């Protein structure tokens, strides 16, 4: 692990109970430069070749989440989270490297152990800021990470164990913000990015991706049998996980 100290941090106001995973469309040198030049930061950056850089000490509050919401927590997610940036030149539209992911697994497992982070509190930046952020993108290996004990995945057959509920209710059960119709659409798209990535269009042009985080006014994003069933199966996984001590 290489250390490059960022000046962009302050004191935490809450103990760590959350992990926010990001991607950056640079290699680590570019990402570090951009993080140092702008008033943003993350605790860790994982380079294209898997090298890990530490920028902010874990006991300090890094500035990576921005305006965000998850499981009814609407303020200061930076205070309670560790932020990891994984480099991917297409911002997660094309596959991550094997070495990057094995280093990420090791780092996440260590953080989960150190801070007893619950699986339902391991999120994508797009999950907590669905109207603003597309990262870490459709190529991020959430299913593989869940197999390694990092975050949650679902069993399709569990959809039938969820009684009828509306799409906003199901999204909210998982943790997504559904405060307005527009946020609900953005959240549904963030959900698709994470849990139905094969159905989301690949946009390799980073600028286009960042400028069009979700298709606006697109109520069809709240429909579809596969979407609803997956939503139910994921909601079941989150309900089940949050019942565990
Ligand atoms: Zn991000």
The overall pLDDT average reads 96
| Spatial strand order of the main sheet | 1-5-4-7-3-8
Strand fraction: 5-15%
The tally of strands reads: 8
End-to-end separation: 33 Å
| Bound ligands | zinc ion
Rg over C-alpha atoms, rounded to the nearest angstrom: 17 Å
List the helices and strands and how they pair.
Elements: E1 2-3, E2 9-11, E3 18-24, H1 28-37, E4 44-46, E5 52-54, E6 60-62, H2 77-80, E7 81-87, H3 98-115, E8 122-124, H4 125-128, H5 142-147, H6 167-174, H7 181-195, H8 206-211, H9 225-243
Parallel strand pairs: 1-5, 3-7, 3-8, 4-7
Antiparallel strand pairs: 2-6, 4-5
This protein binds zinc ion.
Explain how this protein is built.
The chain has a single domain (2-243), classed as 3-Layer(aba) Sandwich (Lysozyme-like), CATH 3.40.80. The chain is 37% helix and 13% strand. The chain has helices at residues 28-37, 77-80, 98-115, 125-128, 142-147, 167-174, 181-195, 206-211, 225-243; strands spanning 2-3, 9-11, 18-24, 44-46, 52-54, 60-62, 81-87, 122-124. Strands 1-5-4-7-3-8 form a 6-stranded mixed beta sheet, with helices on both faces. The chain has a two-stranded antiparallel ribbon with strand order 2-6. The structure holds zinc ion. Zinc ion binds at residues 22, 125, 133, 135.
